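haha ok so turns out i had the wrong file open the whole time. this is the CORRECT one, sorry everyone. sequence first:
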Amino acid sequence: MLVAATPPGRHPALQATEALPALAATPPAVLLGTGTGSVVQLADPADPNAVLSHLRTAAAHEGPLLVYLAGQLLLDSRQHLPHLALTRSTPRSVRYTGLPWHWLVAELGRRPVGSTAVIADLVADSALWQRRSHHRLAEGLVLYGSLAAPAAGRLPRTPEYSRALAAVLRASRARPPLEQLHQLSLHGAGFGPGDDERMPLGGGPAPAMPGPVPVPGPEPVPASVPVPGPVPSPAPVQMPAPSSAPAPTAPDHAPAAVAPLPAYAVPPPPASPPPASTPVPASTPVPPRPGGTTEATGDVPAGVHEAIYRAAGEGRHGEAATIASQWETAALRASGPHSMEAVHWVEVRADLAHRADDAARACTLWLQAAAVRLQAGQAPESGEVAGAVDRAHHCWHQVADRGQAYQLGVQLSQLRERAPGSTPGALRDVQDRLAVLTSPPGPGDRAAAG
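then structure:
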């Protein structure tokens, strides 16, 4: 379902419908990840009840659902709740003429967990932008996208995230995982350090920016830590490969809201890049590329990894994640999304999320790393691919939320079919736990959760 609403007036905040034709023309296999599907376009709708009716019809569909939204978000003057402005909406009338955001959450929240995603390219009004940290738009939704501040002049903003999204989908034979699709779209839209007029929606720590960036912890990056500057040419970025240093051990009991672990031996905790106390030699080679070749450059100062893991070891997880995210952005710009330089930083971020006890985020990033390695041509049985899938599997068993565990388990099952690994029973373990997660919680689960 594609909804794009350009606000009224001679100088609208966003040319919302610009990317709609390109997205509507995308084959269902790429847009939805399914063999067949239908696309409903609502270009410049005026009636919120009509949009709600289409939304309910789409939500009643049993298959996967992707909702794309483009337009302006306004706060109503009475309850100060976000509304998607439609073509007759004004700041005074949006309470009656716009689509309340909580309607969207309520309708999509009734669907099966893991079957729905929302991609949004939005411009906030000044009131919402000032209070953006108070409105958790992603709460209750699987949400990816971009939220921009209102333009300073009269010229409308262009839907840069939507343009990049359409370009990525147009160049893909199959839809990438949503997290990877989001990161590629952010990269294509030019997100990066110093951009204080846009913020990513969902998807965890994307390219770092001042303001309410969705990374764990509020700590700023100290000026003494090297951060990547502009990348003048597409030269590969060097970083050390993950070593065998052990990460923090897993808890010795399963969370109360998740079924007990099966008899299958869960993979060990993720291996980490060098800890902060270990000197990082400048000559450390990057992970081998497909075909066995290795490139070594010196674009990343040796102290970067030390600074990252020192911050994580001292509990400054937000700072560590921000630095790693900035270096991932530099690697994306220098070498592309399928490069080993970029995937290294995805794996660093995964390990940092594990250290911060964010099992769901760590699992998501390890799944992304494995998928990118496979897309880059690495064999499913290679140690790098199998290691990433094993680490995702380990983190998945630590996810306490049943909905998150199910959604991640579906992705893990698909990867396990391609990269089963050397441990017998890995795929069966995922399938068995997914079966448990789809069943209602038993009395013991409810009592433990209560």
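Residues 190 and 279 are 33 Å apart (CA to CA).
again sry for the mixup
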